[in-house]
Amino acid sequence: MNSPRRADSPVWPGGPSLNGPHAVGAFSLCPQLHAFAHELHLRPIVQKPAPAIGTLVHAGLAYYYAAGLAQRPEWFVYADGFEAIRVLGEATPEYRDTALNVFAAYLERYRDDTWHPVLVEHQFVVQFAHGPYSARTDLLAFDRATGEYVLVDHKILRSLSDSIPGKYATDRQMLTGLAISRACGYNVSRVVINAGTREMPYPNFRRYDIPINAEAFARLGADTAYYIEAMARVRAAYPDPLNRPRNWDACLNRAYGECEFYSLCTGRNNWHDFHVPAEYLHGRKAQGT
To answer: Can you give the residue range of the structural domain that contains 88?
Structure first.
């Protein structure tokens, strides 16, 4: 998700992800989509309700679980999750209020939770031949009830469905988070989608164990190396990020509607509809990474 910030406050550690599953997924759909979103870091000025609310709830959950760590992270700049949501959502009161409602309902639903936080919003990084690759984990927890490490990804969805476990069984983010956390010494035995809805006034919640596909997991390293090499090759052949190959078939065939950059590629809209978030202007972009 995008890293919400107020001024230059380090709300998330280390800035945006270096180069991870979302970047690879974007490139696999369309090299120009990857350039817009992950090299130029363009974001729509008018954000859709779903990702805006989801980002705010993620911030609240990050603070809730980070408060349970032995040492609070350097990005812990607000009193708690409620303050984080209120401050970060002050420009969009309707999204802020929905996010506060979902967050409060979550705390009530899981007030007797057995998950003990181990890592919160932690960025694992590994090196490939053509550059770094990373995965930021929403939460790595130790389940006191079962004695297991659990890798958790928070999702705020329109509705809950029994199809969710199968949908994420080969998800690149799920596979990468599991592989990197294990490689870094955590014996993770469960991957869980911690799902909630943004319904008013009563959100619903459910936790889904993801049946990680063994074949997809076994191929993850080779597949990831292929895409990182392909990204480097395309950047070398097309150094201008405004002039990358376009996969027009992917413009409209998307689960959440047309590609957010479709208007740019077709000349329907202009650059004034997009901006570069502060964390990229003052963080990794300024550092040249």
So the answer is: 21-287
